[in-house]
Amino acid sequence: MAEGYRVKDYGQPVKRYVQTMDLKDDASLIAEYRRRHSEQEAWREVLDGIREVGILDMQIFILGTRLVMIVETPLDFDWDTAMARLATLPRQQEWEDYMAMFQQCREGATSDEKWQMMEPMFHLYDR
User: Fold this and answer.
1) pTM of the model
2) 8 A C-beta contact, residue 115 and residue 58
3) Which of 3, 22, 30, 97 is paired with 127 by a 20 to 30 Å CA distance?
4) Contact by Cβ (8 Å): 21, 104
């Protein structure tokens, strides 16, 4: 997307988490994974749960089989606490089990087990 995308203004400082995961290398599965994440197909209970644990925004980007997820949260957000809570919310594990057919992951994995946190290694340094 050469024109870029707009970043939300939350009216407060936020922190950003970046994670990655790979999909199975099957064009039809990838197409179905995309469809199931569309606004019409994503499960409302799961979207509500993501917001309920304090996540302000979540975006997933794709290139081939590689997914990159960007999560924005308030500064006081605690990732481990939020993920533990998210795993207990309605339909969350059902969604994870449902999505596993597309993902390179072990059976029964939670979202936090599937997605691997990426380490920042560069930024446009201040001078």
Assistant:
1) 0.90
2) no
3) 3
4) yes
